[in-house]
Amino acid sequence: MTDPRQQLDTVLWALRDYLDELVVIGGWVPALHQISGTVPTWRSAVSRTTELDVLVQPALPGFGRPSISDVLRQHGFEPVDSGPSFSIWQSKEREGAAVEFLTPLRGPYRNVGRVAAVRGQKQLGAIQLRDLEKLQNSVVRLRLAIHGPANELVQVDVNVPSLGAFLVSRGAIFQQRPAAAGERKAGKDLLYVHDVLSGGSDVAAQVQRDVRTLVGESRAGRDYVAYASNHVTLALRNNQSAIDEAALMLREREGISVDEARAAIRGFLTDFEEVLREALGE
């Protein structure tokens, strides 16, 4: 099986000329913070994925650069969704890397989940989702060393949300995540909460600072944190299925009993609830 880190490097190398204008927002966010040393004392394992979720703005002029669709094709990627604008690209290699482009919702709510063309980019589309601007407004830049096609090390800067903003986004959406059978997306979101907060006291302190910043920046930020807090509280009281999904994934990864995994998920989700309520002054 291809190494997920190798797949990450493949996508970042292909997109290197556009990284200043893109934001990685999906499941790779905790791992990227860990790899880059955001918190040097991070001591827990984190989940990795074969797909990179990338936030792109509605317009992205090329300014003389090859288009993203051309760059992806040059590096062995092809679109897997229906055109004329493509939001999901997959490497032609078996079990190869994938990249999915997302963009803030434009227009009415019925556009959620629909693909919109990215202006200035031929054949590139992005799936419209709510609240992505919250992640855009909480971006930090990480310096990473990646391997190029000749296995040479290259330094790149990658934009990602702060740890706190990323966890708030997981708390806000996990109960609303549509998923095909077997995908366990809600559980995966809760597993990310576990992976970050189990990283140690320094990681937890960074999350607290980030969430306080989000609350203090604007009324919209405060409302977003309150929304996430309500969903986390409801999950702890009523949504055992999402906790069970996360526990099964943790058991598979760590080789522990399902009871131990469930207790760990609930414990760190409770810690996250306390972080959110403390930031809100509750």
Overview of the structural elements:
The protein is an alpha+beta fold and 282 residues long. It folds into 2 domains: 158 residues, no CATH class; 117 residues, no CATH class. The strands form 2 sheets. Strands 1, 2, 3, 4, 5, 6 and 7 form a 7-stranded mixed sheet that branches. Strands 8-9 form a two-stranded antiparallel ribbon. Strand 8 and strand 9 form a beta hairpin. Helix 8 runs antiparallel to helix 10. It is globular. The protein starts with a helix and ends with a helix. The model has no long low-confidence stretch (mean pLDDT 92).
Please describe the structure with a list of short key phrases separated by commas or semicolons.
alpha+beta; single chain; 282 residues; seven-stranded mixed beta sheet; globular; 10 helices; 46% helix; 2 domains; two-stranded antiparallel ribbon
Write the SSE topology.
Layout: H1 4-14, E1 23-24, H2 29-36, E2 51-55, H3 68-74, E3 77-79, E4 88-91, E5 98-104, E6 115-117, E7 125-129, H4 132-136, E8 139-147, E9 153-161, H5 163-173, H6 185-197, H7 201-217, H8 219-238, H9 240-254, H10 258-279
Helix pairs in contact: 5-6, 5-7, 5-8, 6-9, 6-10, 7-8, 8-10, 9-10
